[in-house]
Design a protein that fits this description.
By secondary structure, the protein is of the alpha/beta class. Helices cover 36% and strands 28% of the residues. The chain folds into two domains: 171 residues, Rossmann fold (3-Layer(aba) Sandwich), CATH 3.40.50; 30 residues, no CATH class.
Length: 204
């Protein structure tokens, strides 16, 4: 499988443009939920944008996080477990606009599970938006899901493009790096490069 490396500043710039698109569409969130850990960097940037554009008479955007993970149950079905919310959906109020952010929509299970929980707490779908950096369309198991991103920086139709590269976000990812990749993508800081290479040696 090929691997694509996305520098942190590209993600930052794309996040600002994405936030501007959301704002221009007239959607101003009251609560931003980031899915940890992937959505944290993208969500931080988008949250900063809405801090800047929010009028003084509007209440501040509430920034929160949720920890969710996929697992396989005893019937070998893929499920999503939510380990915790820093702001429980139980506290959401009628009329709240909610923005859910993750780095990638791949299987789509995590985003769909989180939105389903928010819907169960009385927030209608039109008041919930989903934003991701990368939106991957796969086979029917992914395409037939009820919730898809409302906003994204890049869309990949695997069936059409045929390129299913592993996307490595340099804003936060280290797992999966090889020594060759460290040397190729972290050349500007020899001290950091040595730290990363030493870490990889300890793992082998």
């Amino acid at each position: 499988m090929s691997k694509e490396f996305i520098p942190y500043d590209v993600i930052r710039n794309n996040a600002l443009k994405l936030a501007h698109r959301i704002h221009t569409d007239g959607f101003i969130p009251d609560v931003i939920y980031v899915s940890l850990r992937g959505g944290a960097y993208l969500g931080n940037v988008i949250s900063e944008y809405f801090k800047m554009v929010r009028r003084p008479d509007q209440r501040p955007v509430f920034f929160a996080a949720v920890v969710a993970r996929s697992y396989t149950d005893i019937y070998t079905r893929q499920r999503v477990m939510v380990d915790g919310w820093t702001y429980s959906p139980e506290h959401l109020r009628s009329g709240d606009k909610v923005l859910v952010i993750d780095d990638i929509f791949d299987s789509g299970r995590t985003v769909n599970h989180l939105v389903e929980i928010i819907l169960e707490h009385g927030i209608p779908r039109e008041d919930i938006k989903v934003a991701v950096h990368d939106y991957k369309l796969r086979d029917q198991s992914n395409r037939d899901l009820p919730i898809h991103p409302d906003y994204y920086c890049r869309k990949h139709d695997i069936a059409v493009d045929g390129d299913d590269a592993w996307i490595h976000y340099m804003s936060h990812e280290l797992v999966g790096l090889t020594p060759e990749e460290v040397q190729a993508h972290y050349p500007e800081d020899p001290e950091l490069q040595k730290i990363l290479l030493d870490m990889l040696k300890q793992q082998s």
